[in-house]
Specification:
Shape: elongated
Number of strands: 0
Oligomer: single chain
Distance between the termini: 81 Å
Radius of gyration: 28 Å
C-alpha cells in the first residue's frame, strides 16, 4: 500500500510540474524547449542530406542552380563600384569627419568602416567565397 501511495504522490507531483510548465514556463524551461525544437529541426532537415551521400539508386540528388543569385551579386558589385559606391564612400567619409569634429568618435569609426567596406567589398567576397559563378554571370 505504501508503494501505491508513493507512486500516486510522485505521479501527482509530476503532473503539477508539467501543468506549471504549460501554464507559466520559466525562462530556463523555454530555452530548453527551444533547444529541443532546434535539435529536432536540424535532425529532420539534415537527414535528407545525409542520405543523399549514400550510394545507390535511392539517394537523393541535389541540383542547385545559383545563376540568379550570381546575377544579383554581380549587379550589386556594379552599383558599388560605380557612382553609387563613390556616393556611399563620400557620404561615409563626410560623416566620419563631422562625427569626429563633434566628438562622436565611435560614430566616426563606424562611418570609416562603412567607407572602407564599400571600397574593398569585392576583394573580400572573392577572397572568402567561391566566385566562379559570379564571374560567369550574365
Amino acid at each position: 500500500m505504501s508503494f501505491l501511495k508513493s507512486s500516486l504522490s510522485l505521479y501527482k507531483a509530476a503532473g503539477q510540474r508539467v501543468g506549471a510548465v504549460f501554464a507559466a514556463p520559466t525562462k530556463t524551461q523555454m530555452q530548453f524547449l527551444m533547444l529541443g525544437a532546434g535539435a529536432l529541426l536540424l535532425t529532420a532537415g539534415l537527414s535528407g542530406v545525409a542520405h543523399a551521400a549514400s550510394s545507390g539508386s535511392d539517394g537523393v540528388e541535389i541540383d542547385y542552380n545559383d545563376d540568379k543569385i550570381a546575377s544579383a551579386v554581380k549587379a550589386m558589385f556594379t552599383f558599388l563600384e560605380g557612382s553609387f559606391g563613390a556616393l556611399i564612400m563620400v557620404v561615409a567619409g563626410l560623416g566620419a569627419i563631422m562625427s569626429a569634429a563633434f566628438g562622436q568618435y565611435k560614430a566616426a569609426l563606424g562611418c570609416l568602416v562603412v567607407a572602407v567596406g564599400a571600397f574593398i567589398l569585392r576583394s573580400f567576397v572573392f577572397t572568402f567565397f567561391n566566385t566562379d559563378s559570379i564571374d560567369s554571370a550574365q
